[in-house]
């Protein structure tokens, strides 16, 4: 996640104010006397700029939003998984029949469409899942290039604890990148770890984890900025991606990783996670402001916590919710039979 400095470098630089020489006391008194003789009042002093106060009370609403959104994400993922399994079982015989008809029917040769279909079928489940996330990030990146949308993008697609909009930017800024290199680097890391994380969790649990991680890492950034009094907008998917990376490295600490530009040097996932956490902790303590180290650190810690404790506390206790949804679906309009899957 980039912070205020990067935003200023990317086209949000404020116009420098002209510094006027200060007037002496005698000159100011003389000017006031002349205005008094003319019957005019002296010009009032310009208002001082408002400095955001370190009010932790403003974080109550983002905290409630974070808890509520996280609960809704995992609850929705549990229902999504239930519906997916139910649909898969009900459509099994239809798929068998469709496959039989496809073999009997003469195949049509389509150039580009066939190539796209082959490419899509060659992807893993994890890569198919993150394709939608990458497309959403690309769409938001294009919106940053539209001049008429700049005000809206800054308000809703950057997270800032001193802004009027506090809650929805916590989620929307996770899909927001102003720099092409920033977006390309984040999406490459997400693509690289997509197969591992989806094989571990399934696409439904992964989506809940990813969206929740974006909001939680932004809230940690809010707390850090408010505590240090360093307010400014941030944007990027790095906080959520740090959760994915930390989850995979915690689950498979002995896996071998390498940097894309230095493939000859390999290291274990556990050592990589320790180095990243140490780097972001150092940046947070020393006050480095180029990256949002608090968001990175919050995302990494959430990923570690979820693998060690969160999966047992949250995902494995979804059965009561799924049972309630099952009862609702079987009693609702259009439910046929006895509601069995």
Automatic annotation (TrEMBL):
Annotated region described as Disordered, given as residue ranges: 19-52
The UniProt entry lists membrane topology as: Multi-pass membrane protein
Q: Where in the cell is it found?
A: Mitochondrion inner membrane
One family from Pfam that matches here is: Rhomboid
The membrane spanning regions, by residue number, are: 63-82, 175-194, 206-224, 257-278, 290-309
Any one Gene Ontology cellular component term annotated for this protein: mitochondrial inner membrane
Transmembrane helix is among the record's keywords? yes
Q: What is its EC number?
A: 3.4.21.105
Identify this protein by name.
rhomboid protease
